[in-house]
Amino acid sequence: MDEIESAMHALGRAFAAGLTRPGTEIVTLSRYGLEARTYDAAGNPGLIGGFDSAFLDALKTAAGVTDMVVELRGSDTGTYVVSYATGLASLPPRAVLDPAYRFPGHPAPGMPKPAAATNDGRPTDPAVLAEVRALVAAFGTSFPPGYGEEEILAVENQLGVRLPEELRALYRTIHHDPSESGLLGRFSPVPLDQIVKWYEFAEPDAGLFKSDPVVFESYPHGRVKRVARSDWWVTFAPDYGMNFAAVDLDPAPGGTYGQIIEFGRDVWGPVRYIAPSVLALLREPGLSESPAGPQPHTTPADPDRTQHVHLRGTDEVILSDLAGLPHLRSITAIDRSHGATSADLAIPAGLPVEIVDIEAGAFDPGLLATTPTLRYVRLAGNTTPVSIAGLAALPELLRLDVSEAAVSDIAAVATFPALKVLVLSGRQWTELLATGWQPGRLAGAAMGGLVGVHDAVAWNTAIGGGTVEHRTVSAEE
């Protein structure tokens, strides 16, 4: 018996010892830690008992392997079955079939360089430098001495850009702001070597299964490009609340080169416009405290700025009630405490809605076909099977999740012209693959609901996700 198998037996014994009723535990182990979910004997999420320190110690033993999933099934009589697999990132399983694919607005590294970011090696504009030095001197706080022109140029060569004149001038004047002085309001510039480290930080995955991949527009509209990330956002200053300021070297037509944007813990959008330049923040540090524009989930009382709504507390969801929100891009109707009995999915004409995530007892998916901007659709909760064939009329439908919906014609997904990511239940996948359909044009696929290791491995092989090693141990062995 090898070390991992021994650890799995320890997991099983500890799991069974803590049960108050039969059930299942799904554990995902990765380099980032662990995630665990419990289900009762019927497969519904629920509490089925506690776990003692032996269970946690066994988890730590097994955690030396990255990307492992563990399925524990047991009863309060002490019996257990533990199935585990390496090479699966999660249960339910997900597979990225085309790592290079990105949803619209989610560009990969390697974006074309804007002409204004090309560095010709000239020194900092003397007029800008003089004004920045005067403003810093008037602030009345002592800072570490700034950088020389050669040092700034060397950093720019590492970054592959020319920094805005105002930021160059600031770093000619100060080395960094170690005391959170308020020179730029909430933001405190870091040393240049830290800017390089942030800029070279590893890029995350493609985010094909992110709950809401819509890229919202910063307010005022037209100043910041609608992208989730950019090679030409150079982060230079954090605040005291885990937010970060960056200079934008590739603005939208209504913006300015070197404008200040913000992202981080308190920003949902993905970025927020702050000021037209570093110089503007030096002149008026309070701009950082009162950013120009709210988050995209502002209430419908402000229709010009509302981009996302979440509908709750109603028996009937009626999307036509959302008329008059000209920038609406995201609609959610999920209420686990008061589920809607029905949903009228007719979206008012002209709204630029890109995602709908609806849970209701009854709905007609065909009503969504009149909204050509839809890219991401999740439907769940209905009891009477519905047809999804009408969704083939959506020219930009990129992701579909009906894993928790009753569907009468799952084979219709073969007719969806732009589909790149598909999430189905195990039964739906079996039915679809039995038609001879092949997932060759998908960039990502996933199963929904409670899925065991054996079924997950078989599915992963069937959709082309590669071979996965898996084993099962039990109390009887």
Automatic annotation (TrEMBL):
<protein>
    <recommendedName>
        <fullName>Knr4/Smi1-like domain-containing protein</fullName>
    </recommendedName>
</protein>
<feature type="domain" description="Knr4/Smi1-like">
    <location>
        <begin position="146"/>
        <end position="284"/>
    </location>
</feature>
<dbReference type="Pfam" id="PF09346">
    <property type="entry name" value="SMI1_KNR4"/>
</dbReference>
<dbReference type="InterPro" id="IPR037883">
    <property type="entry name" value="Knr4/Smi1-like_sf"/>
</dbReference>
<feature type="region of interest" description="Disordered">
    <location>
        <begin position="286"/>
        <end position="306"/>
    </location>
</feature>
<dbReference type="InterPro" id="IPR018958">
    <property type="entry name" value="Knr4/Smi1-like_dom"/>
</dbReference>
<dbReference type="InterPro" id="IPR051873">
    <property type="entry name" value="KNR4/SMI1_regulator"/>
</dbReference>
<dbReference type="InterPro" id="IPR032675">
    <property type="entry name" value="LRR_dom_sf"/>
</dbReference>
